[in-house]
Amino acid sequence: MSGSGAAPPAGSAGADDTGGFALSGLAVGYARRRFGRRAVQPVLSGLTATARRGEFTVLLGPNGTGKSTLLRTLAGLQPPLDGTARLDGVDLAAADPDERARRLAVVLTEREVPGLLTGGELVALGRHPHTGYTGRLTAADHVVVRWALGAMDAAHLAGRRVAECSDGERQRLFTARALAQQPSAILLDEPTAFLDVSARVALTGLLRRLAREQGVVVVASTHDLELALRVADTVWLLDHAGRLHTGTPEELTAAGLVGTVFTGDDLVFEPGAGVFTVRGERRGTAAVDAPADLAPLLRRALERAGWRPRASGDTGPADLAVAAGPDGYRTELDGAVEHHPTLGALTRWAAEARPPRP
Ligand SMILES: Nc1ncnc2c1ncn2[C@@H]1O[C@H](COP(=O)(O)OP(=O)(O)OP(=O)(O)O)[C@@H](O)[C@H]1O
């Protein structure tokens, strides 16, 4: 996904700079008729939050907390059980479909694959809210379609059948279709799910740029926590009890909320580094002496082997001392010095070694 140099052609986005999404006392869930009576199954209730224009808002939460249900409700695809969700003051649940399509693009996880369409034709569908009665694309529409394909690094997929694309390629095309729509707001449900690591970073970067440069409201759910905490302007964090916490990534981290919601028996959140580490057996502390480019790798290898590496600059005593040299790695544990020719050999040794008994 390039997107960086290529500015999208001017569209409707950014026309109204007062708005964004506003949730007020919103309740979302499912209602169905059973034995002639309406049975309501709420998933989330009492949600109050905003997603501003020009900001990249990321929706986080453990499995089954209601992220997709919330996004579908914001998209106007299912009615709220209570309260309102407005985009630029317009209640999308009550708006007519054409009006909604001009304002809002949605990229959901569950979608039918239009098998006979080519990638280019699929992306061109994004222009339909703007093409009027005939549905014919103008030269300006084609420019937008080409831009959207290029922004998602999907120009080479323009002539390929969507049915013959991989999951990741399809994800790019559906996202390009949303870009081609040039909406005021884009909602995306797990947009990075099928993408490789560089495409994930590129897509999140593109979404953030779109928000900033075009004044678009972008709300995306993801399980890609570490990346989300790096790129989001605002986080909507759903906890296990269905409460929605909002703030910047640093605010929610400092309040201990990210750690509380996602830390489990095996996973622990390190607020300073903004990363999750696997909690395992702790063998003891390890001091690392290595060049700056090698030290983080060495620390991570030791940590996976069950040691607790000292932070760089911490010169306090440690159970294990590891020093990188030109011929490999020297370890000193309980007075015994050993030499390990490679990082792999050191890691295997560290996983077996035991700290001195107290
Ligand atoms: N069509 C449906 N009818 C009834 N209940 C549903 C329906 N779809 C989802 N649910 C329920 O709503 C709750 C929230 O589901 P939802 O898919 O919104 O969660 P999620 O946070 O997106 O989960 P995940 O992270 O696993 O994708 C779950 O308990 C789920 O079983």
From TrEMBL:
Q: Which UniProt keywords apply?
A: ATP-binding, Nucleotide-binding
SUPFAM superfamilies found in the cross-reference section: P-loop containing nucleoside triphosphate hydrolases
User: Does the keyword ATP-binding belong to this entry?
Assistant: yes
Keyword ATP-binding listed? The answer is yes
UniProt organism field = Allonocardiopsis opalescens
Can you name this protein? Iron complex transport system ATP-binding protein
The family database entries (Gene3D superfamilies) matched by this protein are listed as: P-loop containing nucleotide triphosphate hydrolases
Give one GO term, molecular function aspect.
ATP binding
SMART domains reported in the protein's UniProt record: AAA
What PROSITE patterns is this protein classified in? ABC_TRANSPORTER_2
Stored CDD domains = ABC_Iron-Siderophores_B12_Hemin (cd03214)
InterPro entries to which the protein is assigned, alphabetical: AAA+_ATPase, ABC_transporter-like_ATP-bd, P-loop_NTPase
The record places domain ABC transporter at 23-265
